[in-house]
Design brief:
By secondary structure, this protein is of the alpha+beta class. The chain has 18 helices and eleven strands. Strand 10 (about 410-415), helix 18 and strand 11 (about 445-450) form a beta-alpha-beta unit. Helix 4 (about 50-65) packs antiparallel against helix 5. The chain is globular, with a radius of gyration of 24 Å.
C-alpha cells in the first residue's frame, strides 16, 4: 500500500479519471502548479484562479496601507494562507507531512512583499514569485498556499470523483470516513483530497528556479538585473542568492518586466509517461517488483542486523541482475541522489512489509541518509553516487565521525552508474586501509547500476 489508488484497489480507475495517484507514506515530490490551473474546464476549478488572485489582491491592499506593526499588517498576516495543505499529499517531506508555512516565514514573506509594493508594484502575481526572493520558501510551499486557498474546490472535486467511483462506506467498510471524505490511513488527523493530474507538476530544483532570467526577455533588463546581482553569485548559498534577487525587486522597472515575463510564461503539463522525477514510476513498479522477484535473502535470520543486511542485499541483487537498474536512467540522463534514496526506501519497505517485518525505513534527503527502525533499534545507511567527487573522503569522514559506533549498525552504500573506474578503485583502497586502522568503519557496499556496455 504505497498510493491512494493501491489502497482503494482503483489504480486503473484513477488513471481513467485523470486523478493524481499520490503516495500515502510521505508527500509526493510534485506540486500544485498555479499556471496549470488557468483555463481549466474541470467544473469545480473554473473559478479557482480568480479565488487565488482575489485572496492575494486583498492581502496586497492591506499591505499597501500598512506599516510593519499596525493592524493592517497584522490582518494581512492573519489572511495569508499558512501551514501545509496536508490533505493533497504534495510537496516534499522526508516522512509524513512537511512543515508548511509558519508565522515567522509568513511575516518575512509579507515584510518583503510590503517593500516591493512600496516601490509602486500593485500586481498580486508577486506572491507567486516568493520562491525567488524569500529564503526558506520553495515551490512546495507555494503549492500549499494555492491548495489552502482552493481547498473547497478540491473538496467538491473529491466528492464528485468518490461518487463516480462509488467510494462509500458501504463499498469500503474497512476504510474510515469523516464528513464524507476518506481519512488518511496512516496520518489519520486529516482526510485526503484528490487532485487532477493535469494540475500537478514536478518540484523544480531550487537552483533552477531562483534565478529570474527565464522571465526576462529584454536584453537591457537582463543586463540591469545582472548589474545588481553580486559578482560572487556562484559562491553564494541559496538563501544568499535569494537575498540578492530581492535587491532586483526594489527596481520597479526591472521587476515589472519579471512580472510581465511570469504572466506570459507558459507552463506545459507534466509528462507522467517520462516522469523525470521518477516517483510515479516507482509507485507503479513497486507492486510488480515483488511479483517478479520474490527474493528471500536472510529474511528468516534472527537478528535485526541480519534482516537489514538482507534488505540491502536484495536491493543490490535487484539492480545488478534485473531490468530494474533502468529506473536509474531517464531519456539518456542519470537520475540523481534524491531518486536513489526514494528508490532504496521504496524497495526496502515493499520487501519488509511483504515478509511482515517490523522494520520501517525513512530517508533524510539533506544528509543522503536512510535510517532503518525496528522497535527502537536503528541502522544508519549513508548513500552516495559514485559520481560524487567526495565519495572517498565521505567514507573516511564517516569512519572518523562515528568512532565508537559498531560497524554492523552502519552501511556506506555507493551506487555506480558508470562514472569513474579510478574513483571506484580509490574507494575500495580507502576502505581496505580503514578496515585495518579503524574498527568502526561502516560496511561498504558498491551497487553496480551500469548499463551494459558502459
Amino acid at each position: 500500500m504505497n498510493t491512494i489508488a493501491q489502497y482503494l484497489g482503483l489504480v486503473q480507475q484513477f488513471e481513467d479519471h485523470g486523478v493524481f495517484n499520490f503516495n500515502l507514506e510521505r508527500d509526493s515530490t510534485y506540486c500544485l502548479n498555479i499556471k496549470l490551473l488557468q483555463d481549466s474546464n474541470i467544473p469545480e476549478f473554473v473559478n479557482s484562479e480568480s479565488h487565488i488572485i482575489g485572496c492575494f489582491q486583498q492581502i496586497l491592499e492591506k499591505l499597501r496601507s500598512a506599516n510593519l506593526s499596525n493592524n493592517n499588517f497584522n490582518e494581512a498576516i492573519r489572511q495569508f494562507p499558512k501551514g501545509e495543505c496536508n490533505e493533497i499529499c504534495l510537496g516534499f517531506s522526508n516522512g509524513g507531512y512537511g512543515r508548511g508555512l509558519g508565522y515567522g516565514l509568513v511575516e518575512n514573506i509579507l515584510s518583503r512583499a510590503k517593500k516591493i509594493i512600496d516601490t509602486g508594484t500593485n500586481n498580486p502575481d508577486i506572491f507567486f514569485l516568493v520562491p525567488l526572493f524569500v529564503p526558506g520558501v520553495g515551490s512546495d510551499m507555494l503549492s500549499d498556499m494555492v491548495g489552502s486557498i482552493i481547498k473547497n474546490d478540491l473538496k467538491n472535486y473529491t466528492i464528485r470523483i468518490m461518487n463516480d467511483l462509488s467510494i462509500t462506506k458501504e463499498n469500503f467498510p474497512e476504510i474510515d470516513f469523516r464528513g464524507g471524505l476518506i481519512v488518511h490511513p496512516i496520518f489519520n488527523k486529516k482526510c485526503v483530497l484528490f487532485v487532477p493530474s493535469e494540475f500537478v507538476h514536478h518540484l523544480p530544483v531550487d537552483l533552477d528556479y531562483i534565478y529570474p532570467d527565464r522571465f526576462l526577455s529584454n536584453y537591457e533588463a537582463r543586463e540591469g538585473a545582472n548589474s545588481i546581482i553580486s559578482e560572487a553569485w556562484k559562491k553564494l548559498n541559496i538563501a544568499e542568492k535569494k537575498d540578492e534577487i530581492f535587491k532586483i525587486t526594489q527596481n520597479p522597472t526591472i521587476f515589472d518586466q519579471i512580472l510581465t515575463g511570469y504572466s506570459q510564461h507558459q507552463e506545459f503539463p507534466y509528462d507522467f509517461n517520462v516522469d523525470i522525477v521518477g516517483d510515479v514510476l516507482l509507485m507503479k513498479e513497486s507492486d510488480k517488483i515483488l511479483q517478479r522477484y520474490p527474493y528471500n535473502i536472510f529474511f528468516n535470520a534472527g537478528t535485526f542486523e541480519q534482516r537489514c543486511f538482507g534488505l540491502i542485499k536484495t536491493f543490490q541483487k535487484l539492480i545488478e541482475e534485473t531490468e530494474y537498474k533502468e529506473l536509474f536512467y531517464c531519456q539518456g540522463s542519470k537520475r540523481g541522489i534524491a531518486f536513489a534514496l526514494r528508490y532504496l526506501v521504496t524497495v526496502f519497505n515493499e520487501y519488509s512489509n511483504h515478509y511482515n517485518f517490523e522494520i520501517k525505513s525513512n530517508f533524510i534527503k539533506n544528509y543522503g541518509k536512510i535510517v532503518f527502525n525496528e522497535n527502537g533499534r536503528f541502522m544508519n545507511i549513508l548513500v552516495k553516487l559514485l559520481e560524487n567527487s567526495q565519495v572517498v573522503n565521505g567514507l573516511k569522514n564517516e569512519s572518523e565521525k562515528n568512532s565508537g559506533i559498531a560497524s554492523d549498525t552502519r552501511y556506506y552504500i555507493v551506487i555506480n552508474l558508470g562514472d569513474s573506474d579510478e574513483r571506484l578503485s580509490n574507494l575500495n583502497a580507502e576502505f581496505t586501509t580503514l578496515q585495518t586502522t579503524n574498527t568502526f568503519t561502516p560496511r561498504l557496499i558498491v551497487i553496480d547500476a551500469k548499463r551494459r556496455g558502459e
